[in-house]
From TrEMBL:
The keyword Hydrolase applies. Keywords: Endonuclease, Hydrolase, Nuclease. Residues 12-28 have a biased composition (Basic and acidic residues). Residues 213-262 form the HNH nuclease domain. It comes from Aeromicrobium terrae. The keyword Nuclease applies. It comes from the Bacteria. This is HNH endonuclease. The lineage of its organism: Bacteria, Bacillati, Actinomycetota, Actinomycetes, Propionibacteriales.
Amino acid sequence: MKPASGCFGKPPRSDPCPDRNRGVATDSRDLRTAAMAWLDERPHERVDFAWLSTFEFDGLRVPLMDRQRGIRKPAGMDAALAIRTTFTPPGQTPPYADAIGPDGLQRYKYRGDDPSHPENVALRRAWQMKLPIMWFVGVEPGLYEPLYPVWVIGDSPQNLEFTLALDAAQRHFDATSVDLDEDYRSYMERLTKIRLHQRVFRTQVLLAYESHCAVCNLAHESLLDAAHIIADGQPDGLPVVPNGLAMCKIHHAAFDNRILGIRPDDLTLHIRQDILEEIDGPMLRHGLQEMHDRRLMRIPRSHAARPDQVRLEERYQEFLSA
């Protein structure tokens, strides 16, 4: 990653956000392209406000996020450049009810209840001008998962919300069609879940487990998954941290295939009997058989983020029935 230029080492300015003084080229597509390319080279998967404030374009610092506003429109631009969703701790209700609509597409709520609020107008302009934006989704206090490019493809003043396309395949979807094909709707929803829900779920689960496997304590993030306790699409199979476990890929696969179970009362591991009796190489012996009757090696520090006991019980009964 190339070091961000920012304003470090320069004489102090009277305004810490110079784009307020000079403005930027009105809705320059080059600026958006440059910002997304800059995000591609970020040093860490997640970003914060301080780092996002160091982006420069044509010698002008253009912060990609506002500290207070959810919709970012730099001075001089007609349309929004980015949107933000703040982090909501496990078990708490988010301030905005952003959700997947009946067409399988993601919704983003207005700022307040006035469709003419300047922030809503700015995001509406991005829709009208077919401009890509960036979405920073809070995954813990002050830390964001960047999603881009994202497009606004619909506006519903009566519901106080915009419709977003999170994938290029969703951009030209007609969300107003009354004859909505169920297979196509399901495809749209699957794309939304892959691009947003599953990605944010993985990030939040790995952060809760400090990027370690709950079973074996492996600490290589590229080898870790966020395993659902109750599968996605099932009742209570929500992409929330209490329904997740950080697992390395071998233990995730064993969990999903009912080779490995977790007793909900004491969080000890149970390896299926036929696997315990099998004779094979060191991966089976050390990776699975020796895990039997051990407790999980890692659980979140936050009680609210720990595995939900009711979900664990349901999943354990499924394991015992295998």
